Amino acid sequence: MADTQTTTSPSQAAAVPAAAPSAMAFVAPAVAWFIPGAGHLIQKRWLRGLLLLICVVAMFVFGLAMDGKIYKSNTGDLLDILGFISDLGTGVLYILGRTLDWGANAIVIATADYGTKFIAVAGLLNIIAAVDAYHIAIGKKP
Amino acid sequence: MILALELSHFSAAFLFALFSSTVFGICFRNNSREMLRYGAYCFGVFMVGMWIAGWVMWLIHH
User: What is the DSSP string of B1-60?
Assistant: First the structure.
């Protein structure tokens, strides 16, 4: 009887490359960060992508409408630095906001403080969505 | 700013809970049914937590 098992020498095993992550694993989180929900949309998760887009954009817009502040890049107070990192999570919305000078310069009323938190949380939620898009791209999540 | 919105504390917290729990539901569960359940659960926790925090603050104030 013929031996059907194949054997692999160490040199052959070294020649076989490890399964490389697909391009989508890099593209999806980047696109998801830049445009909220887009990481899901390019992977044909239409409803999830649309809901994420609505939630993040709505939180950002409500934050601005409540006179919230968009943090600039800074090296001052720790909370200001964290605020900047959170705001940066909104991707293109942050770039638009900074370019067009949206948002208040100072927080003077209580609702403006809520607005500032809305903008920061929109960024954090978008980062969670980008991680989720990555999990879908690598097949960890359906 | 063209848009100007003055929400009450409750309305702001309601919107915050609604959007956050929607994203949590989508990102932290694997199928539609579980997403819906987890989103609803998070929304409930946000609202109940806010209600309790509100009463605690009222008691501290008085």
Answer: --------HHHHHHHHHHHHHHHHHHHH-SSHHHHHHHHHHHHHHHHHHHHHHHHHHHHH
Q: Note whether A52 contacts B1, CB cutoff 8 Å.
A: no
Specify the 3-state DSSP secondary structure of A104: strand
Q: Could you report the per-residue pLDDT of B5-61, keeping only the tens digit for each?
A: 888 889 999 999 999 999 999 999 999 999 999 999 999 999 999 999 999 999 999
A43 half-sphere exposure, CB direction, 13 A CA radius: 29
CB pairs under 8 A between A and B: 65
Measured torsion, CA atoms of residues A98, A80, B17, A113, in degrees rounded to the nearest 10: -80
Provide ipTM, 2 decimals. 0.91
Longest dimension (CA), chain B: 46
Q: What number is the average pLDDT over the span A90-102?
A: 95
Give pLDDT tens digits for A7-24.
555 555 555 555 677 899
Say what the pTM is: 0.86
